[in-house]
Amino acid sequence: MKSCGKTDTGNKRSNNQDSIFYSDKPIGMMPNLYIVADGMGGHRAGDKASRMAIDITVDFIKDSTLENPIAILKRAIAFANSEIFKAAGNDPDLQGMGTTMVAAIALDGKLYVANIGDSRLYAIDSDIKQITMDHSLVEELIRNGELERKKGRNHPERNIITKAMGSKEEIVPDFFEVDIHKGERFLLCSDGLSNMVEDDEIRDIVVEHDDLKEMTQALIDRANYYGGSDNISVVVVEE
User: What is the band of 91 on the pLDDT scale with cuts at 50, 70, 90?
Assistant: First the structure.
């Protein structure tokens, strides 16, 4: 696998609460690892939550002897969630902190994905498909037939998350398993990209670029062009 990632503060925020990790080399028993986390809970707390989520998850996977990607992601995320929850309870400055997370491991022709919150993973070739499902109020309204999807992007409560790491002592991610097809790219991103740039336009940018570094920059530039109202994080992966 080959990957590239970048995180950007955007045009409106004074600090960056997103964190990313990407490695095409083995992390413990896993052949690779890709993560995007979007922190929340105040200026300092959001930074810490997203960074803790990634650092603890990566360290857990490095030390684990588990060989099943879903099993290792499940245990790593559970442990990271517990540590974030405890840290928030022990420090008043960190009270209420939490973070989204989308993580992926490619193994034997398949991509194994875990997500909590509204950071996303897309599969992109000539089309674009959102693999993950947002844990958000807007997504719940859409699934219940109370809101049209095309109106969700501008909904006043689109930033309300219904599940986040650190919000509860125990939390269970959603898991997905998808086949990796030749020529396909996978995009992990925070909502700073997906809220600013339509899915079809994201696909067009990915398809137009062969160089992954140029692709990640183009995605961030487009989100900033449309206002950059949030931190923007992208990790792009290809076989």
Answer: confident
The residue among 139 and 126 whose pLDDT is bigger is: 126
Give whole-number Cα distances, 147 to 5, 140, 151, 153, 192, in Å.
Answer: 33, 9, 7, 11, 21
CA distance 135 to 102: 11
Give 106's strand partners. 111
| Residue that is written with structure tokens 């491991």 in the block | 105
| CB burial of residue 44 (10 Å; 0-12, 13-18, 19+) | middle
Model pLDDT, residue 176: 97
The one-character DSSP state at 171 is: -
Q: Where are the alpha helices (DSSP H) in the chain?
A: 43-63, 69-90, 137-143, 149-152, 191-194, 199-208, 212-225
Question: What is the CATH class of 2-238?
Answer: alpha beta
Which tokens hold the place of 130?
Answer: 């959102």
Whether the full predicted model's pTM is greater than 0.85, yes or no, is yes
Residue 46: pLDDT above 90? no
